[in-house]
Amino acid sequence: MQVLQIIFLLSLPYVSSKLHSYDYCVLGAGPGGLQIAKFLEDSQRDYVVFERNNRPGSFFLHLPRHRKLISINKQFTGRKNKEFNLRHDWNSLLSKDEQLLFGHYSHDFFPHADDMVRYLQNFSIGINVRYGTDIKNVRIETNPEAWNGHRFLLLDQTRQEHECNVLLVASGISLPNVVNFPGAEYTEGYEAVSIDPHNFTGQSVLILGRGNSAFETADNILGYTNFIHMLGRSRVRLSWSTHYVGDLRAINNGLLDTYQLKSLDGLLEGDISDLALVHDGSGKLFVTHKHYLKNYNNSTNNNTINPSSMLPKDDLDNFAAREPYDRVIRCLGWKFDFSIFDKSIKLKPGFGLKKKYPLVNVNYEAKTYSRFVCGGCCQPWH
To answer: Which residues form the signal peptide (predicted)?
Structure first.
């Protein structure tokens, strides 16, 4: 589950005044934060949810950009068993209130994101959420009087501190994943690129990434562009093949269909970190390998850019991205925001493809401190 970004300000000093002391603090009022808060509320625990925005589920006000969720809303199974039906309902949170089933908010199999916003707004009623509270820094201190031997100290944007025994992080993976390469400044991010397909009429587009956001973006503009190329470091992972719902879903694979049917669209394979974009001065963007760009810069002293001289050349002349692009869109997914956590937390990223998540154990607790819990953002370490 995903929630909005939290930003860290190094200049904010620690203060000694405590607004309140809690047993449990939850960061984020998205689906993960509201679900754990519902359990705490029903158990009559001492807790609070901190949400930087003025409403729950604000992530879904803007994302996904094209507003269609890939979490299925299956309302009919032919069964009366509630547990069985909930296994096939990917949107409803757990509650004793039968009216808080997502099927009451949408009948679409792939629902609109606005319906999720309405659902989370109603689900949050009765939950202790402090809206407009932006946690800027989290640290930990030894406390012999605490039942677990330490306390978490949370500093908000007003320079007030809050403390708790257990910290549950449900802030999701909220930062756009950005890869730096020569010419990266010419790219547009998925989180901000236009969603009006008419803005792409007659243009040639390169999309960086091969996940659902990349294919979702391609599907939106497919009928307006000259052609779309999609670049990723590995082959497309199809959810029906991998059985992982986060891989490419059939609802988004229109570009894959046109590619296989030999249309002008194409899928390219390569490491994006080796990429280089060259602006020719007239608005066109040429793709090359940064090796060729380096060799070009070393061999010329003039200021005239000749993109064709930077393109790979071989006897087969099979460089797929030889034609220039009008736009390059970055759709590389998201990563966790580690910046608010003080060094005392000792929170570390995972390894390899899991480095975008915090390193946690099989119980989704941070490896260093057993009472720091991630909800909806982390992957277990092994």
So the answer is: 1-17
